[in-house]
Amino acid sequence: MTETFLDIPVDVTTTEDALGAAAAAVAEGPPLLIVAVNPEKVVKAQRDPELRAFIEAAGLRIADGVGLLVASRLRGGRLRERVTGIDLFLGLCGRARQEGWSVYLLGARSEVVHAAAQELSRRLPGISVVGLRDGYFARSDAVEVASEIARSGADLLFVALGSPLQEAFLRQHGPATRARVLMGVGGSFDVLAGRVPRAPQAMRALGLEWLYRLWREPRRIGRMLALPIFLVRAVLRGS
Questions:
Q1: pLDDT tens-digit series, residues 102-131
Q2: How many angstroms separate the CA atoms of 62 and 199, rounded?
Q3: What is the C-alpha separation between 81 and 67, in angstroms, rounded?
Q4: Shortest CA distance to 152 belongs to which of 101, 116, 103?
Q5: Which residues are registered as beta bridge partners of 235?
Q6: What CA–CA distance (Å, rounded) separates 189 from 116?
Q7: I need a surface site. Which of 91, 93, 108, 140 has the fewest CB within 10 A?
Q8: At what angle do helices 15-28 and 85-99 cross, to 10 degrees?
Q9: How many other β-carbons are positioned within 10 Å of the β-carbon of residue 139?
Q10: 30-65 b/e with 16+ CB inside 10 Å = b?
Q11: Are 66 and 215 a contacting pair, CB within 8 Å?
Q12: Could you tell me if residue 36 is left (phi over 0), alpha (psi between -120 and 50 degrees) or otherwise beta?
């Protein structure tokens, strides 16, 4: 089931549903592209046709933004569970360890992606990280990067290049990686590596992680303005 916000689709799903979809993709295909959607990305997609097309083409669009849940409730929609990108990333890695799936990490600075891989191995002993690479490569090298990922045999590919670079890489080169599950994870490697702290659990439970991030990074205020713009437009339009 899908709900639209300013004509951008978001799937009414749960974390367990997403993990199940990933398992099906690894077992029998087709490959699954997962996109984390938040109000900022919805507003951006209004003026970026390539981003809009990318979201529309994804196999699973998770609601990674409390503003989506608020808008859905205000207009009588069915979206009730926030599936955050970082929590799904970690959940997929946990399932990978259980099922023997292989993982590739692409993005962030070299020391960050290496620290993230080490932390995954610490938390999930036995997880198969078959490759990693930082995000500081020339765009002209993207084809070779995709070939490198394909040669690794990775089942799951997590791309942390930031938006819109990670969407561009996945759109243009995702199929060539031959990964079964592909997902852009933004700053998740920095969080996993301990470089950027997450909000306390109590704030996350209340949907206030955005406020914590704003307190930590006041320069994000411009980006946060997308939330009220989104709410007004989405509730008034109803779709």
A1: 999 999 999 999 999 999 999 999 999 999
A2: 20
A3: 12
A4: 103
A5: none
A6: 6
A7: 140
A8: 50
A9: 11
A10: ebbbbbbbbbbbbbbbeeeeebbebbeebbbbbbbb
A11: no
A12: beta
Q: CB–CB of 184/159 below 8 Å?
A: yes
CA dihedral for 216, 219, 223, 225, sign (positive or negative): positive
One-letter amino acid for residue 213 of the chain: R
DSSP string, 80-130: -----HHHHHHHHHHHHHHHT-EEEEEES-HHHHHHHHHHHHHHSTT-EEE
pLDDT in tens, 131-156: 999 999 998 999 999 999 999 999 99
Count how many residues are written for the chain. Answer: 239
Which candidate, 66, 6, 16, 7, places its Cα nearest to that of 36?
Answer: 66
d(CA 51, CA 212): 27
What's the confidence (pLDDT) of residue 222?
Answer: 60
Residue 105 one-letter amino acid: L
Which token pair is 130? 């078959």
Q: Encode pLDDT of 157-209 as tens digits.
A: 999 998 889 999 999 999 999 999 999 999 999 999 988 767 677 766 656 67
Lowest mean pLDDT among 84-98, 179-193, 224-238: 224-238
